[in-house]
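Lab notebook: predicted structure, single chain.

Context: the supervisor wants predicted structures on file for every construct in the current expression panel, including those that have not yet been purified. This is the next one on the list. No modifications to the sequence; it matches the entry in the shared construct table.
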Amino acid sequence: MVGGGPETKTIFHVTRGPASLPSFAYDVAASIGAFVDAQSSQYAMTGIAKWPLVAPEGGRDALRAAMVPLTLGSDHEVYSASSWSIPAVYLNDWPDRYIHTNADTPAKIDPTKLKRAGFIAAATGLVLANATAADAQEIVSVIEEAALHRAAEARSQIRDLPPAEAANRLRFQLAYETQMFDSMGRFFTSPAAVRAESARFITTIEPLLHTPAPPPPSGPIYRRNATLRGSLDAFGYDYLEAHLGHDRAAKLTLLNFEGLRGEGGDYSYEALNLANGSRTTTEIRDALAAIYGPVPQDAVDQFLAAAEEGGLVAKVR
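Prediction complete. Output recorded below exactly as produced.
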């Protein structure tokens, strides 16, 4: 839901897709969201803004949008899962004390907030629908600006980590930023000059994210069963419980794990996304640790073995 008025005491989020599926679409949406946020704040403080995006019957408050990493719980997680691999931006209000209750009524919608959410969605869609090689340089600039923020955030997240986990976190971020530039290839072929600019930028930020080479990968390699699409649980149904039994599923450590920036459902969602037929289980653990915080290798191994038994993945090697 979006558009919740002040009575709902909710926060508007512009949410990225999974870290396992880097896409410049997320940075485009965040850039547009930040623009709307800045314009709405200027209007709330001064009464003047070029793009206040205020509805006649709506509020005049600032949007106060939060640009956040992936959160699960709606249709976007289905599209972004590796069985589809469609990058998706999720606009949502959360927490909302009225959602899914009999008090969740249209009267609690703020037309201004709804208008701003619609603008962010429409503008993002317009950019993506019309993006061509002629837009590559501007898109690169958007990625670069966001990448600098992400690099700083990655460095802040390693302060209290053991050296090996800190190195893994930075190593993942550098690879992620490279893939962000590569993601433009799903829309168009970037001009040579733009590709050169992207490479120069990666070289520029590499000292901020430089780490020793990772240890050799090991463990089995799994590939997700692409014919099983959709969420693993919804409205009382749980795939793993249905295929492994309640007691067995309840004992899977990863599903109950609490990390620094995620919990069991987050880890298991990305674990399946990362099972692409080329990553080993140690590489999957390292990616999960970088995304959500350190996690035991045994927990990842146990989950993927159970996922194989349940038909969610197949062992390649």
